[in-house]
Specification:
The complex is a heterodimer of chains A (280) and B (387). Chain A is of the alpha/beta class. Chain A contains nine helices and nine strands. A five-stranded mixed β-sheet of chain A has the order 3-2-1-4-5. A four-stranded mixed β-sheet of chain A has the order 8-7-6-9. Chain A is elongated, with a radius of gyration of 20 Å. Chain B has 387 residues and is an alpha/beta fold. Helix content of chain B is 50%, strand content 13%. Chain B is built from 16 helices and eight strands. Chain B has a four-stranded parallel β-sheet. A four-stranded parallel β-sheet of chain B has the order 6-5-7-8, sandwiched between helices. The longest helix of chain B is centred in the middle third of the chain and has 23 residues, at 161-183. The radius of gyration of chain B is 20 Å and the shape is globular. Classes of the chains: A alpha/beta (280), B alpha/beta (387). The interface between A and B is medium-sized, with 14 and 13 residues.
Chain lengths: 280, 387
């Protein structure tokens, strides 16, 4: 029987679950609430239903993301750095550098032979992350998912400081009252994030191809702004939110494969025994 | 294998670590005078030679900085601000005096603020030069003699060459003990954990040198006797300024690694070089503090080609990586720490050129950032593990 693997990625904004065997069988994306533990179970149940599998058929579960310790049914926790690296190496084998723009942080990862060899993450500050755009969108009265498209209509991007989310939000209000056009302001916001992320990434010595993942990759305006900084096109996976969860499932597959090859018993979480209690 | 309760030396260190300055307060009650100082660049030998107890001032990563901000701007070193905050909050009330060397700008330019606010019977600034050339060395010898005369006046008796030579001997013995403790880290698994060693060295900063030698001797004997068995883990070296709490080291070890080497204060930088015995003891002292301690605060003139220059500045780190079998280096730098900020790119490239991966972390000198640090450290360990 072929094994099935699950990857659970609890990010600051979104929770993602992927179930795989040789390919992706099911995936679910839902918002992360304040109660990770309950949510992880619920999203997992949803994914199992989609895949038409009972939980006992999942051989191994890897949890990642900043809420990774709050997945009671996971066999192992692995950081989002390793999971994104693995996910990108699988989806976009030509990528040597990964840029991930998430809700709470942004990161750059250097890949060699499908593995992370170096990484950078933003400081403890929301500038250069999805939160920066969320705050600005609220200030502008625009839906976050519309920002990318709107910015494409910009004539000339307005310059916005890239250092502090709170101050940038104030700046947005000032520019608005000064009469700047909405698309120009949004384009300016994208440029601010791109400048910040690019500056951080340069510490890694960027190598082509560059993959862009995370919620930021779903914003066409941000993608364009980053490409302008880099001077070439980036690669974006079909569903950029799922890279970490796919990587987590694949790392689970690697662990099981290695254990089988070596003939060592697979160490799995004891909590799995409680699955009846968890999933009823 | 002795019971945990039998680890007397370690328990003593733990007590002095948990209640920093405990021994100094006891000695104060017995009539001893206590001199506080900042930074490894204060020659504690002179304080010992004058018959005083030197206590290195430390901050507290768990205590939010509140009082200091009215006196010191927030754009300076957070460690210095925390030290000052602790002093304002009464944690160093037992001090009779304060010695501040021209270590970095954050320390130098706050001396007047310390002096004004603490109003101690004795305060002295050591105008230590930053260059290592002969002219700087001669100047520094004069500066040390000025300090010696000034402290002698406060003690009511001149500090003789003999007293200074004896103090140097004691402090060298203390360093030799620390070196012995470091030897125990070379084993796999290391015979002393990074957390234990850090705790011991922080306790050492607060003890009279004779008592420190005794405590270190006990700890070494206990660690040698205590057997340890553990599955192999990554061997990590930490490089940074003053790390005066176990929290960061513990974070690394709790993530599944051994901290086996460092270039830190308190740590290898402060303890692994000794003072040469010279006819005029000040000559040996000046040479050690200006030329032997390798720290970002000291400027080393470029000699030879760039590779040779990096070797001169960071060769000791490279040797430590080899000698202690280090798998990965964590470069742990405080925000606004200029001396180490300047060094970061070169240290990183020097160590990476040797083939050892480096994780560079910038932190706030506060445990509020621990969650973010944990993810980076775990990711770094995963990366080392999959090599």
């Amino acid at each position: 029987m072929s094994h099935c693997f699950a990857g659970v990625d609890i990010g600051s904004t979104m929770t993602k679950v992927v179930i795989m065997n040789q390919s992706v069988l099911a995936s679910v994306i839902g918002p992360t609430g304040p109660e990770h533990r309950k949510l992880a179970n619920r999203v997992m149940e949803e994914a199992l239903k989609k895949a038409k599998l009972p939980f006992k058929d999942i051989t191994y579960v890897v949890a990642t993301g900043y809420g990774r310790i709050n997945v009671p049914f996971a066999d192992k926790q692995i950081t989002e750095i390793s999971c994104h690296a693995r996910g990108v190496a699988y989806l976009l084998p030509e990528a040597r550098t990964v840029i991930d723009i998430g809700g709470q942080d942004s990161k750059g990862i250097k890949l060699r032979d499908g593995r992370a060899v170096d990484f950078v993450m933003n400081d403890k500050c929301a500038a250069g992350t999805g939160r920066f755009l969320e705050v600005a969108a609220e200030e502008l009265g625009v839906r976050l998912e519309d920002m990318g498209k709107l910015s494409l209509e910009a004539k000339k991007a307005v310059r916005i400081s890239n250092t502090c989310t709170v101050f940038a939000a104030q700046e947005v209000v000032t520019k608005l009252s000064g009469g700047a056009a909405l698309p120009d302001i949004i384009a300016g916001l994208h440029e601010a994030i791109a400048t910040r992320v690019y500056g951080m990434l340069r510490r890694l010595k960027i190598e082509r191809e560059v993959a862009l993942t995370g919620g930021g990759a779903k914003n066409i305006g941000l993608v364009k702004a980053l490409e302008a900084k880099l001077g070439f096109a980036v690669q974006v996976p079909p569903e950029p939110l799922l890279t970490g969860a796919i990587g987590a499932a694949l790392l689970g597959r690697d662990i099981v494969k290695e254990a089988e090859e070596k003939g060592t018993p697979l160490s799995r979480a004891e909590r799995r025994l409680q699955e009846a209690a968890l999933f009823t | 294998m002795p019971e945990k309760s039998a680890l007397k030396g370690l328990a003593e260190a733990d007590r002095y670590y948990q209640d920093y300055g405990l021994r100094a307060r006891e000695l104060k009650k017995q009539g001893k005078k206590i001199i506080g100082y900042l930074c490894a660049f204060t020659p504690a030998e002179v304080i010992t030679a004058a018959g005083f107890v030197p206590v290195r001032i430390k901050g507290d990563v768990n205590e939010p900085i509140t009082k200091a901000d009215t006196e010191m701007e927030t754009i300076i070193c957070p460690l210095v601000r925390s030290c000052f905050d602790m002093a304002l909050k009464g944690h160093y009330e037992y001090l009779d005096g304060l010695v501040v060397p021209h270590a970095c700008d954050s320390i130098c330019r706050t001396y007047d603020i310390w002096k004004y606010n603490l109003k101690l019977p004795y305060a002295h600034f050591i105008n230590m030069p930053h260059g290592t050339d002969d002219a700087s060395l001669a100047f520094y010898q004069d500066v040390l003699n000025t300090f010696r005369t000034s402290l002698g006046k406060f003690a009511g008796k001149e500090i003789s060459n003999q007293a200074l030579a004896e103090a140097i001997k004691l402090h060298n013995q203390n360093r030799a003990k620390v070196k012995e403790l470091y030897e125990l880290r070379k084993a796999s698994p290391p015979l002393v954990s990074g957390e234990e060693l850090t705790k011991v060295l922080i306790a050492v900063m607060s003890l009279p040198v004779e008592e420190s030698i005794k405590m270190l001797g006990e700890v070494i004997a206990e660690m040698k006797e205590r057997g340890v068995s553990a599955q192999k883990q990554a061997r990590i070296m930490v490089i940074g300024a003053q790390v005066d709490d176990i929290a960061f080291i513990k974070l690394i070890e709790d993530s599944g690694a051994w901290v086996v080497a460092d270039d830190l204060c308190p740590g290898a930088r402060e303890f692994l070089s000794s003072v040469d015995v010279t006819a005029d003891p000040v000559v040996g002292l000046a040479d050690r503090y200006l030329r032997k301690i390798k720290c970002g605060r000291t400027y080393r003139e470029m000699k030879g080609n760039y590779e040779e220059y990096l070797e001169d500045r960071f060769g000791h780190m490279g040797r430590m990586i080899d000698d202690f079998g280090v798998d990965g280096v964590v470069l742990y730098i405080y925000k606004y720490c200029d001396p180490y900020g300047f060094e970061v790119p070169q240290i990183k490239s020097y160590i990476e050129a040797k083939g050892t991966p480096v994780l560079y972390l910038e932190d706030e000198y506060s445990m509020s950032t621990i969650g973010r640090l944990r993810t980076r450290i775990q990711a770094f360990l995963e990366l080392l593990g999959s090599k």
